[in-house]
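Reply to dn_fold:

You asked what the input looked like. This is it:
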Amino acid sequence: MRAALAPGVRLLRALPRDSRYRGLTLVLTFLCYTSYHLSRKPISIVKSQLHPNCSALGVNPHNGSNSTTWCSWAPFDQDNYKELFGALDNAFLVAYAIGMFISGIFGERLPLRYYLSGGMVLSGLFTALFGLGYFWDIHVLWYFIIMQVCNGLVQTTGWPSVVACVGNWFGKGKRGLIMGIWNSHTSVGNILGSLIAGIWVSSKWGLSFIVPGIIITVVGVACFFFLVEHPEDVGCSPPLHHVMSDEKDPEGVTSDDGPLGASGHSSAEHSESPKEPSEEPEAISFLGALRIPGVVEFSLCLLFAKLVSYTFLYWLPLYIVNVAHFGAKEAGDLSTLFDVGGILGGIFAGLISDYSGGRATTCCTMLVVAAPMLFLYNRIGQTGIGTSIAMLIVCGALVNGPYALITTAVSADLGTHESLKGNAKALSTVTAIIDGTGSVGAALGPLLAGLISPTGWNNVFYMLIAADVLACLLLARVVVKEVRGWCGYMARKRGSSVQLTESVLDGK
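and this is what came back:
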């Protein structure tokens, strides 16, 4: 007797063709960028093992020395180990920020599938090489610095590529919500990276890098075999990126796209073979991308928004230890609630911006509310465990919500802006410009926090609040434009209602 068709297969067959490919693209790009963040996380976990408290382990079994650094890994066994750890972080962040501006230009001119999968394999190589320093008994600082710089550069292949792929498949109407949920890959990757690195950190810390390096390489190979860059490549219907009409309003950007598909079937003209290379539009230049309305404003806004987010990422556990007097493990566990809030904030920001059509207004509103919440968290956030949990989730949502929206839906919107006249070969460049500018803030934030924190944590939070306010002000022009659009739309709507009423009355 033959068994019935598996339920999962029946479900796949029930889904329209477009929905299946959209779902595949969403899942595959989610796994790709999860593995990117998974491979970045081990360095923050392994730091404690590179310079542990050796006095707790007793005397040196080799020579009987009672040195407090006998078990540390040279060159991180000196008193300047914090500066050396900072050099490792900045080597990655600065290389990432510089490389991001170049990465998008290459991403527009190379097949995204090759570019993304190649970058993942190289990232896995450099991550594993860092860990092999343990087994090769390497104690030269420059070896680890070079690995961090190389990894930072090749990691820039990830974000422009995955955003471009998702932007190619999903129209503007539901893009904010879909990308808000999809953007949780950052937090998922951080959590998985921490758990995987923690397995070997106390025994053979080299494996804490080698295993994530293998994982991102395997996912990169899967990307090479299964990623579809454009719907037209497989005969699917392209999404609606913007409204093709003379009158445009914030609410006029919706499309028929559902969460996983548009019409659910392909028209005859889309079932033809892919376009010839001669028919493809030319990739946009760097300066051309800067001239797209909104790119400069959102890029500068992200610089300050990401400055706040990455300062929390690198300094929140230490702040909790110093102010709330929790242990290191408890502080680390509590700090993950900021990421939980970030996931919720990204979904909420995407949902609201889809409904309202105002990406800038959504970001600006959340940033305005975030400023007083940061002040309150510093003042009363450590008065009790319940208050701390609630404030961390709220602050994480308000800080990371705009950051997530700008790096995902806004980047995709601007990369398919109507001023490009259908030329979609700007997604990678626009995404790289926006995230590259934000990465400058990501490097500056932790650096400024390190310089300011000796003067008191209050001053660090004043710096974060100031950055938050600047991020909001930089979007003021775009917000005014969106509000004027709403006012014009409502005026036209009221005018249409009055005309309809008069027509009905005249008919009577």
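The CA atoms of residues 256 and 262 lie 5 Å apart.
Hope that clears it up.
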